[in-house]
């Protein structure tokens, strides 16, 4: 969308809102973001799935923003249509996203405090019971797996030999026959240091942004994402502190799920590439498995780690 189209869409819903400036903040797989009048961040979804996810994000934030110990974006503007959003406008959260460079300048006392604050954030988030049902918010683990399997077959099978296709079929058959037991809760799903806005003058957290993957799902996913996004800024020691202050009693289970996610990651990326038409993701990860799935025997035949699918 260009700036004229953006202004026209917003003012069609909010005719009294005077727009004086529009600044691009970037574009991702799901949406384009703009800073309007230097005070509100607007997100415009780029496809139907993103529009549905933006709807869920907005509805959840409207309900939970006063139930969390850290500030989250306040929803000011919405343009809703049939369980989707054409756009959402949030109050701008000040500060700078945490980068490895910023994180590494912090002393241990500050890191200790931040770990406690983030642990408290997750504890509160996981404990929230939504009062209003939101369509599509709860994710069924087996249904998620089935969708990934179908995407892998469609995107990768024409480029794989029979041996590898049989390995994949067996892996998914075993996962789909599992009886999963896990704690369901409201989860952020894709948390990393870049989602934390930080005041480098006061060493205080200003807020947490980007709830686009909010869901009701396996509670462990938030800790696993922390373990898998350490290159964004949070090191292993800091992630361990968050988990400790959270009071997690199932650390071994989290680590097993994290290990299986590492094994499963080529299929995760093939699904991502298929969903968002990113051929480079598909081809790169087909190359990883084209001669056989790495560590297949250990994870599927010997140790049966597929029970740790997440």
Automatic annotation (TrEMBL):
<dbReference type="InterPro" id="IPR002575">
    <property type="entry name" value="Aminoglycoside_PTrfase"/>
</dbReference>
<feature type="domain" description="Aminoglycoside phosphotransferase">
    <location>
        <begin position="22"/>
        <end position="249"/>
    </location>
</feature>
<keyword id="KW-0808">Transferase</keyword>
<protein>
    <submittedName>
        <fullName>Aminoglycoside 2''-phosphotransferase</fullName>
        <ecNumber>2.7.1.-</ecNumber>
    </submittedName>
</protein>
<dbReference type="InterPro" id="IPR051678">
    <property type="entry name" value="AGP_Transferase"/>
</dbReference>
<dbReference type="InterPro" id="IPR011009">
    <property type="entry name" value="Kinase-like_dom_sf"/>
</dbReference>
<dbReference type="Pfam" id="PF01636">
    <property type="entry name" value="APH"/>
</dbReference>
<dbReference type="GO" id="GO:0016740">
    <property type="term" value="F:transferase activity"/>
</dbReference>
């Amino acid at each position: 969308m260009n700036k004229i189209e953006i202004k026209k869409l917003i003012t069609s819903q909010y005719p009294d809102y005077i727009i004086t400036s529009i600044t691009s903040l970037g574009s991702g797989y799901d949406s384009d973001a703009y800073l309007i009048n230097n005070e509100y961040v607007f997100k415009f979804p780029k496809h139907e799935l993103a529009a549905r996810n933006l709807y869920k994000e907005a509805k959840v934030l409207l309900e939970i923003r006063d139930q969390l110990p850290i500030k989250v974006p306040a929803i000011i503007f919405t343009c809703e249509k049939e369980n989707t959003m054409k756009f959402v406008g949030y109050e701008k959260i000040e500060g700078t996203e945490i980068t490895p460079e910023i994180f590494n300048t912090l002393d241990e006392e500050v890191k200790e405090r931040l770990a406690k604050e983030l642990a408290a954030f997750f504890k509160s988030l996981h404990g929230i019971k939504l009062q209003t049902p939101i369509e599509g918010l709860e994710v069924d683990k087996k249904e998620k797996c089935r969708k990934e399997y179908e995407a892998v077959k469609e995107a990768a099978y024409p480029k794989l030999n029979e041996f590898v296709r049989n390995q994949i079929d067996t892996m998914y058959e075993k996962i789909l026959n599992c009886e999963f037991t896990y704690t369901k809760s409201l989860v952020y799903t894709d948390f990393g240091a870049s989602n934390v806005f930080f005041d480098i003058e006061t060493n205080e957290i200003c807020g947490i942004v980007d709830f686009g993957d909010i869901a009701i799902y396996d509670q462990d996913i938030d800790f696993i994402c922390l373990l898998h996004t350490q290159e964004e800024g949070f090191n292993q020691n800091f992630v361990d502190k968050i988990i400790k202050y959270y009071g997690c009693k199932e650390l071994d289970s989290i680590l097993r799920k994290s290990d299986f996610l590492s094994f499963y990651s080529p299929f995760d990326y093939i699904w991502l590439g298929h969903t968002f038409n990113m051929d480079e993701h598909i081809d790169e990860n087909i190359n990883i498995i084209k001669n056989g799935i790495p560590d297949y025997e250990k994870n599927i035949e010997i140790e049966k780690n597929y029970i740790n699918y997440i």
